[in-house]
Amino acid sequence: MSEPAMNSEVVRREWPLSLGVNIDHIATLRQARYALDGESENCEPDVLLAAATCLRAGASGITVHLRGDRRHMQDRDIFRLRSELEMKMNLEMGNTAEMVEIALRVRPEEVCLVPENREEVTTEGGLEVAGQMGVLRRTVERLQGSGILVSLFIEPEVGQIAAAGELGVAMVELHTGAFSNAVGGALVAERERLARGAKLATDLGMRVNAGHGINYRNVGMMREIGEIRELNIGHAIISRSVVVGLEVAVGEMLGLMRGEG
Q1: Closest CA to 229 of 214, 246, 244, 211
Q2: CATH number of domain containing 166
Q3: Are 181 and 203 spatial neighbours (Cβ–Cβ below 8 Å)?
Q4: Is residue 145 within 8 Å of residue 103, measured between CB atoms?
Q5: I need a surface site. Which of 72, 95, 152, 168 has the fewest CB within 10 A?
Q6: Residue 199 pLDDT greater than 90, yes or no
Q7: What is the per-residue pLDDT for 39?
Q8: What one-character DSSP code corresponds to residue 259?
């Protein structure tokens, strides 16, 4: 797809753009057939093998979302990935007592707190930070006190970014859903909204990641926002891997992120 002209004020990249691959839908495929089989030897595809393949292809880390309803990733997946692979793990989770205790046991490098609705197919929006400062502060302090970097999955809105900064989190992940669904002039506007949000978060001392709906057609526009450090991409890569294989799919995405395609 052709990309709209970029506002020159937001064109700056002082570091490489890294890729965290979300492998939740590897587990989704497995659960479609083997949800009741537990740890049967027949269970496939193997999330550990998928994660290792992504890392071999150049991913900087693996993202996994352990949902309360366990619709895809299971507890055993998270612990197995942690114990058997040397990698940066970004554990997405809801802000619940159960998940905080699991995170403290797993000790991933990063935890990203996300909103969670059992009725949704995938995460539909950013976390309401400004209205939950008290409960979020307790979780952030517990996780960061144990050496885990905390990120908040938020909309690129001034109020949410400012609230995240007030909580003292290490990073935010900007929700790119509106950008990914936009077309024409709305696409340009959403990209510039992301750019403004990324700059504000950076100015407040937070690292900026982004994710949700990013694919092979729009990822180049993310490359133009210099403050964004990492993209977390799952569905597009897993979908592409059905045709070309997972290692190739990751490599193709990294090439686009580097401006090679």
Answers
A1: 211
A2: 3.20.20.70
A3: no
A4: no
A5: 168
A6: yes
A7: 67
A8: T
Neighbour-count burial for 242-261, b at 16+ CB within 10 Å, e otherwise: eeeebeebbbbbbebbeeee
β-partners of residue 63 are 22, 90
Q: Are strands 207-211 and 228-233 parallel, antiparallel or unpaired?
A: parallel
| Residue pair 248/235 in contact by the 8 Å Cβ criterion | no
How far is residue 6's CA from residue 132's CA, in Å, rounded to a whole number? Answer: 35
β-strands 228-233, 171-175 pairing: unpaired
Give catalytic status of residue 25 as yes or no: no
- Asked whether residue 36 is domain-assigned, the answer is yes
CB atoms within 10 A of CB 192: 18
The pTM score is 0.91
Burial label for 233, CB within 10 Å (0-12, 13-18, 19+), is: buried
- CA-to-CA distance for 161 and 176, rounded, in angstroms? 14
d(CA 238, CA 249): 8
User: Is residue 121 domain-resident?
Assistant: yes
How many distinct structural domains can be found in the chain? 1
Q: Which of 25, 92, 173, 192 is catalytic?
A: 92
Q: Does 5 map to a domain?
A: no
Q: Is 84 a catalytic residue?
A: no
Q: Please tell me which residue in 65, 72, 110, 173 is annotated as part of the active site.
A: 65
Residue 107, token pair as written in the block: 């000790």
25, 72, 175, 212: which one is catalytic?
A: 212
Which domain does 120 fall in, by range? 14-257
**Cα 207 to chain center, whole Å?**
13
Whether 119 maps to a domain, the answer reads: yes
CA gap 65, 181 in Å, rounded: 22
pLDDT digits 0-9 by tens, 50-100: 999 999 999 999 999 999 999 999 999 999 999 999 999 999 999 999 999
